[in-house]
Amino acid sequence: MSSRRGKIMGKASSLTEREQGVITALVAEGHSLRVIADRLGGSRSVTVVRNYLKCPEQYGKRGPNQNAGKMTPYLRRKIENVLKTKPFSTAGQVQAGILSARAKSVSVQTVRRVIRNEHIWKKCKKTPHLQDRHRQARIKFVLDHHWKREEWRDVVFTDEKKWNLDGPDGLKFYWAGLEDEPAVCLSRVYGGQSLMVWGAINGEGKLALLFTKDYYSGGQTAAKYVEMLDKSRVIVKAKETLGYFKFMQDGAASHRAKITMDWLQCNNVEVLDWPALSPDLNPIENVWGQLTRQVYGGCKQYSNVKELRKAVEDAWEKMDDCYVRDLYDSMPKRIIEVALAQGKKCRF
């Protein structure tokens, strides 16, 4: 009895093309549903035969979701509002938020379907923790530097970036079929070996991409930083391109050291008084982002430092100077946004 019950309760497969042909032929001969079901070997019930004959052309084809009509534009707006205020909410929490707003009842499955169809999961961007003193310094900076685009093009922006063999972090996501073998990524301590790169851009485009290993080994000190600037002749190149310019560097200890400031002064370089924790104001951060997408696209990993260096150099060479100039043109907007946000981070 238990085996028969399990057979009845299990979901039967759809009618085969042969079975559909037999049913059509027997109906044409005038046989009853019971006789047709018996002629199929007893594996098909009268109900199955009846359901097929209701609409043979549409048999086996999935029709429109009958619950789709329950999701009204009003409910979609409610879901959107909940996700805007609480973007980390689960489908159940979104449903609870809709019900608390006295909206029409809707199932968790429907909410989940709408979220998946109209939203994507995105990794949160990291941003520095701005304290009040940082915001005040940023406000002062934007008020003192309400410049036009032409004035910003006279600034040389610089920054350092570390490149790992395994990519910028250990979080790698991908879409996979249900029957696909799982993809495997290499896992090495701290992302394997790495390269430290110093980059500079100006209002005309790319200026310099320096691999610090070519100039010194170990951690950066003020003396090593000055030696790199001197040997690379990056300051000379900037003067040849722009003539007079302002030099932007972050507040790293080696950058603010007396030996560094004395060397820049001796070379007649005006240093821009840059506020701390302000990567959103530095357009070279966007350059790094563009290079990262090129170097690590498709979760690309590298076997050795030489291979990684070649990829970084190629991506730098392929980057259009027009892209860099567009970033410079965005500087007035960045300044205005930070001013309107009272020193908080801008969208750039």
Automatic annotation (TrEMBL):
Tc1-like transposase DDE domain span: 154-308
Domain Transposase Tc1-like: start-end pairs: 76-145
A GO molecular-function descriptor: DNA binding
Highest taxon of source: Eukaryota
SUPFAM superfamilies with a match to the protein in the record: Homeodomain-like (SSF46689)
Domain Tc3 transposase DNA binding: 13-60
One of the GO biological process terms: DNA integration
Transmembrane segments: none
InterPro entries xrefs: Homeodomain-like_sf (IPR009057), RNaseH_sf (IPR036397), Tc1-like_DDE_dom (IPR038717), Tc3_transposase_DNA-bd_dom (IPR025898), Transposase_5 (IPR052338), Transposase_Tc1-like (IPR002492)
Name of the protein in its database record: Transposable element Tc3 transposase
Organism field: Porphyridium purpureum
